[in-house]
């Protein structure tokens, strides 16, 4: 039960982040990913992935799904994968490397994949790469800094012990 409540809180924070939009051609770049990256570093790759998927879908819904629902579902899956990679690298390899790889995957890799779809292409990539890279940088660096602050205050120990006590 506690795990569900904590995960729900991160998802709710994604909703709050959807209201803080960053300038982009589609209007779907926001601070919705910050809680997902934080959840991945605190709780692990799977809770982070769930939060990332739902966070993106909430932001896209608040903008009226400008790229269509199927495309935003694909982007949500991309977010889930990127956030889970971040969580894995953060917990098992190197935190700074996790930050760098996540920024590159989310800011450059995600729109590059969409270039392959009909109707997108190089113009879409060129329009999205800068705002998405800046948004990724802001979301991921803030999540990293919040994690460090929580760690310093020892709040991380409390959150992670609650999550692991129910397994």
Describe the structure.
This protein is mainly α and 167 residues long. 80% of the residues lie in helices and 0% in strands. It starts with a helix and ends with a helix. The mean pLDDT is 89.
Fraction of residues in helices? Answer: over 70%
Give the low-confidence spans.
none
Percent strand equals under 5%
Run of helices and strands: HHHHHHH
Which whole number gives the mean pLDDT? 89
Rounded to an integer in angstroms, the radius of gyration calculated over CA atoms is: 15 Å
Please tally the β strands and state the result. Answer: 0
DSSP helical segment count: 7
Largest sheet: none
User: What coarse outline follows from CA principal-axis ratios?
Assistant: globular
Specify the structural class.
mainly alpha
Distance from first to last alpha carbon: 11 Å
